[in-house]
């Protein structure tokens, strides 16, 4: 577990920053893939953290795969964006029309279906998740995608609205999420412009290393959309 800012920690779940979960105080943000739960529980244990809640940026298999096991082990309540609640409970993410064509299995195995789980709360704009973070509705990559924003020091946890690495080469840098997994790319670009407009200091994405001095990088990124 790596401390990024006061009360904010990153839990890397794959080599080369491939998949991240985060800890905000005693709240777990995302839970990686099915096989990530063990790693997360071990990291929490080693840090002496007792979780109070689990919040989710969006209901894709590489962000909620570990959720059922985490909930079984800790009993904490789970919150997800209102627009992703049905997908989370069914274990069926909303993907692009193209992704529903047969034969496209690689990336979908990674980020697609997962074991559904019951959701305790739906997150909506302005909700407080603790440690100064509030919920921003940032749809596009999924209908109910949310980000977590702390205005006081400009820390943004943005799920997959942007990725902080190229997903194939793993080279660091800001990118749009894969089109196959993004049902509404134009709406996602609106979310990207909104997040850039906040001028975040640190951007923490689901994929890729932390982006520091992020305001300029985000400005340049959205100018190129
Ligand atoms: Zn993802």
TrEMBL record:
Coiled coil: none annotated. The keyword Magnesium does not apply. The keyword Hydrolase applies. This is MBL fold metallo-hydrolase. InterPro entries: Metallo-B-lactamas, NDM-1-like, RibonucZ/Hydroxyglut_hydro. Residues 18-207 form the Metallo-beta-lactamase domain. Gene3D superfamilies: Ribonuclease Z/Hydroxyacylglutathione hydrolase-like. CDD domains: yflN-like_MBL-fold (cd07721). Keywords: Hydrolase. It comes from the Bacteria. One of its GO terms (molecular function) is hydrolase activity. Pfam families: Lactamase_B. It comes from Paraconexibacter algicola.
